Fold each of these.
Amino acid sequence: MLNLEEINMTEEDILNSYDPDNEENNYHLPHHIYKQLQLKHFRQVCSEVVPGALFISSFQVASDLESLRKHQITHIVNTAADICDSCFPSEFQYITYYLKDTNNEDISLLFYRTLEWIQSAISMGGRVLVHCREGVSRSATMVIAFLMWKYNLSFEAGHEMLQKVRPICNPNTGFTFQLLLLGKKLSGTLACGSRPAGSPLAPDRPLLFRVAPHHPREPFLLLVPAEWSSAWPSIDPRFAWVVQRGPQLVCWIGSQVLDVAAVRDAVSKHSHRLEVFERCQCSLKFLTEGE
């Protein structure tokens, strides 16, 4: 434990001695205090990741209109809408997600949709801010995913690139695993529609997805991984289901699905994104119950 009397510094002196610009000047700080001060400092920083194009921040920045205008932000990815409002819908274009910073949250379902949106904004001259509550885990995961795809980087290289401008960025363990898996998909190491090594199911077993809304407040449709049932007839007809074997996809639309057009659109976009990001040639077939 640090002896304040021995070094003749008050606790206030120590807190005020934090140097955000030179890490070597912070050697005297206890690790936990250093991390707290570092987090506090970056809470008010809009970190520029890709010059003139991609930024990452906390909600404190994302809720500060003056700061957003100062950095000429045009598009905002809000990854934590449960606790962070999309504050200025009339000023900026938003894409909003309700993600929790937990190890079992499947953020990967939104990777390709988000990368597509960010790239579209940047290609039109936009400046994109990605944020969560602190700008540490959820937003960092999305930014690293973009860097991995855009610059053909490994997870480690993308993480290092991001930490150079925002050293507090650190995706949780679950997100890190999903980014490592993304790297295999982007590189072709894991073929389109294949199961990763260590999967409890047989590697030749097709993938199964349920077409479901992301969140009641953002009900756009996603393909959510589902467990195989031993009896196909038990599949709920209120939903649409997608079976994927390699690049071949078959979408079965239940008789009680309310918006068939929305389902077809979501599945078609999913297939297209596989072609763009995993560089595979997909085939897609639709089947409707009762036809």
Note: The beta strands are 47-50, 54-57, 75-78, 93-96, 128-131, 207-215, 218-225, 240-245, 248-253, 283-288.
Amino acid sequence: MLKKIKAFEDKGITFGVSHLIEIFPSPLPDSSDNGEISSEGELFRTSNSFGFDELYLNDTDTIEGESNGKKLKFSLKDFVQWQLERMQPITLLHLINKTCASVDSILDFDTEYEKDEDYYPEGWLNVYESQEMREKGLAYIERLRKEVPKELYEILVDAILDKEYGLLNTDWYESELDDNLDEIRRAYSHWDVPLMVVSKGKFLPYIEVGYTHNLMMDDYNLKRMYIRNYDEGDRA
């Protein structure tokens, strides 16, 4: 039987997953809070230095876990939602833009327009718009989290895991990072939007007893890293 993460989070859980999703500014940075970034290994897990949250995924519909020596199994959807609930609005904004998540239509447009003639969530959530519009988009995401969290997370989880347009579909993995970080940095330096880096391997993120804000990780085996291009621009 699949378990709910919230039923075990206060006891601590270690998960076994296959993917880590990170978002980075463009061009890819050459340093982080940890120091110089001169290789893909040094880039790995530094996205939090630039204000973004990590997202762990798995290549099956379930997640293996362990809590107090007990083997558990969780739904991948439950695992993803648990993470989304703890993310900053800016990370959610970019996940929305890098998937087919149509969260701009959750609230009734006509009803909202009657109250505010400037109501324009499609534009607010567009990362190519102005900083002023982006601030409205972040406020809109916060509003959805408070008023309609179930609908928001269902749409976003489904989009993230979508077989065709989701983050696990390798068709969107355009460039592998393989001892070529400087080349990759130059190839995407002209992009106007942040870059998504997908890492594949064996990762063991965990929830620590007394700390359920987000996942931590000490143990992993990194195998591959890719730039995911969701028709966001050309590689130079």
Note: The radius of gyration is 18 Å.
Amino acid sequence: MFDTTIRYFCEVARLGSIRRAAESLNVATSALSRQMANLEATLGTPLFERHARGVHLTEAGRLFHEHARATMLDLERVRGEIDALAGRHRGHIRVCTVEGLIGDLVPDAVADFRARTPDVTLSVLTDGTAGVVRAVADDAVDVGFAFHPQPHRDVEVYQEAVQPLHVVVAPEAGFRLPARPRLRDLINLPLIIPPDSSYGVRQLIDGVARADSLVLRPVLTSDSITGLREMAARGLGVTLLPLPSVHKDVRAGRLRAVPLADANLRDARVGILVRRGRILPPVTRAFLSRAGLLLAESSSTPAP
């Protein structure tokens, strides 16, 4: 069917490689290559520029890709509407989340939703905040969960909630902290933070550091929330994370979390993201509704 060809074309365009797209789609590379060549012959123009490292869209390819993505999304939405009319709740929802929410909010949302709609499948990927925003903007996923997402013209914040940053330390580490520490109080302590501003936590920290003319000299960096948490738990330094990322360890007495007093760090937010202007299928809208309720509950839950 033509919708299969469109789906295959969109995957090649997304990955920039026929070989990687074939692996993703679980089809033979030679078969996918022939299908793309047949599509170009049907349209009477090259859609890809082929080179040693993969493929790039031509100008005609970019135009076709724009319409192909819209067609794919329309087909998905119409199928969902037809299923809803027939009383069926089927489909597949693609989710991308920052790692800090994979231990609690996102699994809770998935479990809650699956209990109500067992015929709907979901895939959950993790990335940094910038990667989540990009995946939503590119229609690579249907729903994104991100910490402190930056505005993007193609991305809409469906719902957000305040999740303040906390100083996270091992209770026995011996680091002296004020009752309401500010970032400037941590400058002379061994800092453990994300490596760059593609991570929402680092964006916030860097913003406060610039405003207060502070120089950050982290002793350890990690692109993994688990890595940040575990290094802090071993007494190697202090890290800064939202409470949902560490609350189980805090309850177990393995870590201590102290709220930061800096206004921008107190007002940090978690957002549920969708692509602006996209009409979502009924099952995706239902998932968003459940996830939004859980996000609101998590932001109103007192610290342990």
Note: The first strand starts at residue 48 and ends at 51.
Amino acid sequence: LGDPHNTENPILRLMGVLLSDTIGVHEKKKIMEEEFHIAMTMELESEVSELCNLSEGVYKRGLSNGLEQGLEQGLERGIEQGIEQGIEQGLGRGIQGAVELLRESGIDDSTIVKNIMKKYQLSLEDAQNYVYAANDERS
């Protein structure tokens, strides 16, 4: 409905006031009496209070749904990232183990680089990083 304070149309103003989640019950009653000359009976006060509770309930439900969706999406993304990182770390350890085994078998570094490039579809730079990282760890 927009801002209940800034509207020319009296019907929209009244609806905006009644459904506003930023205007309290007491203020709503005051506006209805002073601006719209609506006498506040017990029944009408009760209905205004219900409308206040309704708008607050709708707001809380929307907030709750938004939080729930955000949490679900965050968890999904976190799980996906965790799986990806786990796979990458596991693959890295596997490649490092292969480099060590090939070295122990007497194979030179340049051949190891070629072999792991082919086996694991690595770029030359990535393969060299694995081989030379294994060199650094041995030192």
Note: Residues 41-138 form one domain.
